[in-house]
Input
Amino acid sequence: MLRLLGRANSINVRKVLWTCHEIGLDYLREDWGRGFRPVSDPEFLALNPLAQIPTLVDGDTVLSESNAICRYLAAKHGRHDLLPADPAARARVERWMDWQAADLNPAWSYAFHGLSRRSPEHQDPARIAESVAAWSQQMRLLETQIGDGWILGDAFTLADLVLGVSVQRWLLTPFDKPALPRAEAYFERLRRRPAYVAHGGEGIA
Output
């Protein structure tokens, strides 16, 4: 059985849980990370020297990085609806997954930790304002790409899954936001998926 190491309230662990539910996979999740067993524990570091959650153990395969884990699971189980086999179609999905990790997440990091987590290390007003501005810019870009369905049209893919937890974080972090009606409608569509209901972390930013 799959082992998934990481606390269930982590945004990145929730991506993998959501993916497992969409595919219909059984797994054993173990609590690691903030508030639970520390990722500095030698047992964890032996599996993942990056000391990050989630970590997936699938037989002899050990993976970290949530988006990579989601890709692996979809590809291994032939879920070409979530991650197409065609190289061009797959690249379009992965482009949005990479954008979420490389552009959207860094934009919100400081503001989220300062405003939602109330981290003492993230209370510089200027840096919060800078992060909010960058986050808003990225979300406005996303707003222009959303239609009446999913990010790539009629098919729900892994791109929507990873974007979904990020849009949720945007909506729940307390600051004055620009109106993004397409993003809000998109999130309401995501919330109707049973796998989101089970693992999206409703109310958890």
